[in-house]
Design brief:
heterodimer; A: mainly alpha; 2 helices; B: alpha/beta; ten-stranded parallel sheet; 17% strand
Chain lengths: 63, 330
């Protein structure tokens, strides 16, 4: 099987989330995400619903 | 600025970008809804599903949400489930339905069997084309958003899946002129009582299935399998780059670019002691699901039995699927 990311089996037990974050560099920026979405099309996705009424974000019984 | 607030800002920006991209398809959502409307008038609201739960006891009601993440095959979770005596609800995302049935996870063995479709695109039809679906369709309760492509619902209807409708929330906050509100008014035009639940989708069928399990089916325990919201380290490069949709996603990702490692971020999951890789879409899905789990009602317990992936943290109890089944199968 073709693989791309080197497995880190031997070190998994020694690392923690912070070390991974540090070792893998900075977070994605807004611009980089936007470029990715523009290129990839993001099909197969839908949006997250946001509202000033935060309870509504968890859904409504019926409308 | 703290990394936490920075992360929230980034998630908010991601949501805005996805929303803008999704709205390019708004006209087709309206067309889909208009084509579905005569059927919606005559078919069931998903609200009816919780009324059908006999001897309802929320504290004893559980569900297993099945996604199509890589752990589902890696740990043979479908086989484990098929061989179990689990008595609760099975809530499949549409993309795993045919594989689940082929593995023996069927409504004959698990009568409380549901499938969920959220994406409004024609390509979803392929999830309902496998011949095995016709063998079990009449015993499966399908849950579809009102903006599902009508060809997709027709394919499910052909297989005799019992159609149930709901709204996927996206603009209800915009008031009376919002599409969510206008479409609800049109659905109630013939029968004022024909109301539908309106759910948060979290951007994908897996997260929507989690919402349906507790919001509509009223399950107090919801277990996740195949909900990696990330790739395995040893997944093929093409799988990772194309987000499992090679024919739909573009060739535009430059794997030699300096941003490549940022686009495909490694995350350590301390609950399962493993590393997963999140492409930008999975970063978006993962952050949203984790946020909603952390905000879910106190009476709900979410158990991640995926045994991998990026879903861990506040209010998420992780355990091996085998252990979940031992604990909950009676």
């Amino acid at each position: 099987m073709k693989t791309n990311f080197k497995k880190e089996e031997n070190i998994i037990s020694k690392i923690n989330e912070k070390e991974i974050t540090d070792s893998e560099g900075e977070d994605l920026t807004q611009k980089e995400f936007e470029e990715y979405i523009a290129k990839s099309g993001a099909k197969g996705s839908f949006m997250v619903y946001r509202s000033n009424n935060k309870d509504d974000e968890l859904g409504l019984d019926e409308i | 600025m703290s990394s936490n607030s920075s992360s929230k800002e980034l998630q908010s920006s991601m949501e805005d970008i996805i929303k803008k991209k999704q709205y390019e398809n708004f006209d087709s959502w309206v067309t889909n809804f208009a084509s579905n409307l005569p059927n919606i008038w005559n078919e069931n609201s998903a609200k009816k599903l919780n009324l059908k739960i006999q001897n309802f006891e929320k504290e004893k009601n559980s569900a297993i949400v099945i996604g199509r993440g890589p752990s589902i095959n890696k740990f043979e979770h479908l086989k484990l489930l098929a061989e179990s005596n689990y008595q609760g609800n099975i809530v499949c995302s549409d993309g795993i339905l045919s594989n689940a049935l082929k593995a023996g996870v069927t409504p004959d063995k698990f009568p409380k069997f549901f499938v969920v479709t959220i994406d409004p695109y024609p390509f979803v039809k392929k999830h309902y084309e496998d011949e095995i679906i016709k063998s079990y369709g009449s015993k499966i309760k399908g849950i579809f958003t009102v903006i599902t492509n009508p060809e997709v619902v027709e394919k499910a209807r052909d297989a005799e899946i019992q159609i149930h409708w709901l709204h996927s929330l996206f603009d209800y906050n915009e008031g009376k002129k919002s599409f969510n509100n206008l479409s609800a008014l049109m659905i109630r035009a013939k029968n004022i009582e024909h109301k539908l639940p309106a759910i948060q989708t979290g951007g994908n069928a897996g997260t929507a299935a989690w919402f349906i399990s507790w919001q509509i089916l009223k399950c107090s325990t919801v277990a996740l399998i195949g909900i990696n919201h990330g790739h395995e380290e040893d997944d093929p490069l093409e799988t990772i780059i194309y987000h499992n949709n090679k024919e739909e996603l573009s060739e535009g990702v430059d794997r030699d670019s300096i941003t490549f490692q940022k686009l495909y971020k490694k995350v350590y999951n301390p609950d399962f002691n493993c590393i997963c890789i999140l492409d930008p879409l999975y970063q978006f899905y993962s952050e949203a699901l984790k946020e909603f789990i952390s905000r879910s009602p106190d009476w709900l317990t979410t158990i991640n039995a995926t045994e991998g992936g990026s879903i861990f943290g506040d209010r998420i109890k992780s355990m091996k699927f085998k252990n979940f089944l031992e604990k909950y199968e009676i």
